[in-house]
Amino acid sequence: MTQAVxxxxxxxxxxxxxxxxxxxxxxxxTSAMIASLDAEGRETVSAPFGQALIDxxxxxxxxxxxxxxxxxYTDMHVFAEKHPDRFYQMGMAEQLLISxxxxxxxxxxxxxxxxxxxxxxxxxxxxxxxxIAEENLxxxxxxALPGLTTGYGPSHQATEDIAIFRGLPNxxxxxxxxxxDVYQATHAIADHxxxxxxxxxxxxxxxxxxxxxxxxxxxxxxxxxxxxDVLFISSGFMTMRTIDxxxxxxxDGVSAAVLHVPTIKPLDLETIAAQAQRKGRLVITAxxxxxxxxxxxxxxxxxxxxxxxxxxxxxxxxxxxxxAGALPTLHDQYGISVGGIVNSVKSWL
Amino acid sequence: xxxxxxxxxxxxxxLERRAWQIRxxxxxxxxxxxxxxxxxxxxxxxxxxxxxxxxxxxRAEDPEWEGRDRFLLSIGHYAIALYAALIEAxxxxxxxxxxxxxxxxxxxxxxxxxYTPGMEITGGSLGQGLGIAVGVALGLKRKDNPAFVYNxxxxxxxxxxxxxxxxxxxxxxKLDNLIAIVDFNDQQADGKSTDAxxxxxxxxxxxxxxxxxxxxxxxxxxxxxEAFDKARADTSARPRVIICNTKMCKGVPFLEExxxxxxxxxEADEWAKALAHLDHEVPA
Lengths: 349, 284
Prior knowledge:
A: alpha/beta; Rossmann fold; 2 domains; B: alpha/beta; 5-stranded parallel β-sheet
């Protein structure tokens, strides 16, 4: 009988060992798959992607939406309700979703196709490569459950999606941080004449960056706040975390800057190198993605190619199939919670 | 009838002659490279003749004319056959035959949209064409454009599961502007297609999915023409498929007799022999 090999960071035990339930007040349930990142006591916006699409559609007749039986879980449903004539339910068929979106793009439309990140990156990859990217068609692939944003285990955790898409020519990759980022990025990618893969935060999405005077610009990294000891270079919701980690570190006398990099490809190496070159700072990338082939490796290799050699660390998910469970537990376990980030930074300073 | 504006075109040329010319162009290209998917090209020539010289509307001098019928070649390796038809249609110039498969040619070995006028999609990764055709058909309907979308698939391509996603979707969306053409020659890379997967009765299968399905002898031009006419004239709100049973290497008997013909080996001296055979009987 074979035994699954658990990752070094796994808490799993043999499936043949019986478990005992925790006492009722100590139980942490696996969050629902549709759970959003709203459990942090912040101001939230509901369905920023769907709302952006509605606003776009009011101005542009070429905007159409498609989903592979996941409109409700990608916030596409609000667009579908508003514009039923512009929404295509393609069924549970991701390869068709992508190729049909390519066909619509060939006829002059700007299709937004949604599914989960695992299905786009793993199942439909060849279709995205050949039907869309090779012809540089303006299809926008917008995917929920990026990285570790569900406790359902590897079937739903797209921990390597960025690594997969980074190697694809013509593909632009967006990893937005919050509701405002999602809303603005949706408009920006609609205006971009080429294929885009965007990681989606859905449901009630926190609003964080608005308070920093932030505006999304395609292909641009942006300094959220400055600091002297540490430079965080982060993308996606990890920028929320690095902002909070910077606040926590400040209490211990550590001054941390946060550079938000919502566009993973093309990477804004100019801004990244300019920031990294500043003397006396430990550069730390932080991403909701495996350590293999994501933001950290893109930044590290990019800096070296530019002749910038600096103290460099990465916070990322391990190169493992991740455990199932409750998200807060898993984020702590894999070191991408605020506490996890703070602990890592302190161990490195 | 096809709208043909190229000088070499003319509506008084028989479909048999068109098919003959397509076969000839393909053999000339094969001779240039000394290899090629010539078996498929010879087998599908009659179907392409009917497509480009009977069924489809297009403008040779403006291959991207908005009103054109779209012809999507999923099976990229059939490019040699489509180039041969595009040359005969006046979309590609005849004097580029000698560039086939050469560096910087507009006619690479596998068909790609960005290389060749008249090549609508980048094929080659089988199982994508019909899905793209669904999207194109949906797009045409959004624009109230009455053009048809044709997608030429191979039997082997029916092994790709994604084809069947598209088969279901086309029925769901009532795509009566979509005509799938299956070139059933029962040859794939490793041998007979029907030795690899249980294809069964393909006509019955597509019909069961809700398509208007016809199965014809794909080398009987009259039968193919009739099937295309019925497919276009059908008034039901459903997609159409024509399964064309064809013979690999049709028209060159000494090649027809060979066993494995997917990437048929043709000796250097056999190209001239094959052309001579074709030229021996030129259709009116």
